[in-house]
Write a structure and sequence with these properties.
single chain, 368 residues, Immunoglobulin-like, Ferric Hydroxamate Uptake Protein, Chain A, domain 1, 5-stranded mixed sheet
Length: 368
């Protein structure tokens, strides 16, 4: 009995070893140069007309020589997917392989940027005739800005000045104009203070779909209060049939912590996005704390194929401690103020009814 048990174990081992195989690939660009850092994924091939499994067998990145090797793969044939920045996605089915497989990638098609701020309706950026700099939702997530001033400072023509510590008054200066010459629009609603003043240091961008920065004389298309620029922000719409949950947290020194979460999706004619964000830091000294919280919702309903009703809500609350000018070059000239602070509490709500006519006309009725 013991002999047969040992025999079965050895037989299973040898069968598994015989069925396992290795796969070696080399990734090249259209001119034959090696591609470094390309992501190569090995999956089970599609069967019975179904898509391939979402569970990959193995994932690796190509080396400096453009090579990648997989050992002891347990299934044949394989579906290989290659992804590299600047190149189109490439897929191929690989049977039993005993030699090097060469994959030659093609360049990705040029991406077309569509902007809205230039003409109030979507047009390709190169046809807008205006100086519009967009920031996509992916770029904003990569930046992870605590507030809008952290993102705007990377755009050409934008000069952002923040008075004091984080949470201090952050002003935007464009083309030599005053900081009150900018118009700020969030989800179609102008949110400037009377006189044009706006504090970009307390405008969180969590779950923003994209941001557009229009500068130059074309900004006056939005009125005399937009003499140098327009900054417009849109909240992300839900689009996935399966609810999409995003959440995360990070932190650092000086008691800095940040957390965010969102739930978005779509079902039939209905789409939704609920999101929240909280940022806190204690700062470097007495009464140097800063906090910024955001809660919001974006809900849409398609009444017909031509009529859409959408409501958006945003609530932000910020707190900034103001210790005063008490520390100069490391020397305490006077005691800091332990209680003075700045606090902002903003609520924004808007509802849009959009009607698209077969002739191409678009009517929009808004309330906020």
């Amino acid at each position: 009995m013991r002999f047969f048990l040992v025999f079965e174990i050895l037989l299973t081992f040898f069968v598994a070893a015989a069925s396992a195989s290795d796969l070696k690939l080399k990734v090249l660009d259209p001119q034959g140069a090696v591609v470094t850092g390309a992501q190569v994924t090995v999956e089970r091939p599609a069967s019975n007309g179904q898509s391939s499994s979402r569970s990959p067998l193995a994932v690796q990145n190509t080396s400096a020589e453009g090579l990648v090797e997989f050992h002891n793969l347990t299934s044949e044939p394989y579906r290989v997917r290659v992804l590299a920045k600047g190149f189109a996605s490439h897929e191929l089915d690989v049977q039993s392989v005993t030699e090097l497989v060469t994959v030659r990638l093609k360049l990705a098609p040029a991406a077309e940027t569509v902007v809205v701020t230039a003409t109030r309706y979507p047009v390709p950026g190169e046809l807008a005739g205006s100086q519009v700099e967009p920031l996509s939702g992916e770029e904003l997530r990569t930046m992870q800005p605590a507030a809008a001033n952290d993102a705007l400072r990377f755009l050409p023509g934008a000069i952002v000045n923040t008075a004091g510590q984080r949470g201090g008054l952050a002003s935007l200066f464009v083309r030599g104009g005053d900081s009150t010459y900018n118009k700020v629009i969030v989800d179609g609603v102008t949110i400037n203070e009377p006189g044009g003043t706006f504090d970009f240091g307390n405008l969180p961008l969590n779950d923003a779909d994209h941001l557009e920065f229009l500068r130059g004389s074309q900004s006056t298309f939005y009125g005399s209060d937009a003499m140098t620029s327009v900054v417009q922000i849109w909240t992300r719409n839900g689009s996935t049939p399966i609810p999409e949950l995003r959440f995360g947290a990070d932190g650092g020194n000086f008691g800095t912590a940040n957390g965010y979460a969102s739930l978005a999706g779509a079902h039939g004619r209905f789409d939704y996005n609920f999101f929240g964000d909280q940022f806190n830091t204690q700062g470097q000294g007495i009464n140097d704390a800063y906090s910024n919280s955001l809660q919001g919702a974006n809900v849409g309903f398609a009444l017909t194929n031509e009529i859409t009703l959408r409501s958006r809500f945003r609530h932000s609350n910020s707190f900034t401690g103001l210790p005063g000018e008490w520390d100069f070059n490391g020397q305490a000239l006077e005691s800091p103020d332990p209680s003075e602070h700045k606090q902002l509490n903003n609520f924004l709500g808007s509802t849009d009814l959009t009607i698209i006519q077969p002739s191409g006309w678009q009517h929009r009725f808004s309330g906020f």
